[in-house]
Amino acid sequence: MPITFLPKTRAGKWSVVMFLAFVALMAAAGAISSGQENRIEYPNPVNSPLLGTVIYLMFLAAIMASMSGIIAVKRNNERSILVYLSIPPGVFYLIGILILLTGVLIGPPD
After folding, report:
1. Domain annotation covers residue 5
2. What pTM value is reported for the model?
3. Residue 67 within a domain
């Protein structure tokens, strides 16, 4: 199967759609943040419901795009440039979340 720009498989198409949702949510988070004049130190759904929710949905979209892309590449032999581009951001965010969760579980040094 030759390398193409657009995906051919269903999982590859979902990966690209979720990656586009990630990019759109990233732009929305930037617009919301500048609209609030960056007054929020740590945005989460408690102290900034709109910005925190958009940021968490952005992370989720990136991770889902990455998972779908990996499935498309491994199981369906997808060889699309857009699918390959959608994999690294989700892996990066997933590793970051796992590192933060590990830090929470271990706790601060005494």
Report:
1. no
2. 0.81
3. yes
Phi, psi at residue 85, to the nearest 5°? -75, -25
Domain count, the chain: 1
% the chain with pLDDT above 90: 38
What is the 3-state secondary structure of the chain?
Answer: CCCECCCCCHHHHHHHHHHHHHHHHHHHHHHHHHHCCCCCCCCCCCCCHHHHHHHHHHHHHHHHHHHHHHHHHHHHCCCEHHHHHHHHHHHHHHHHHHHHHHHHHHCCCC
Structural domain span for residue 14: 10-106
Region at 26 (left for phi over 0; alpha for psi -120 to 50; beta for the rest): alpha
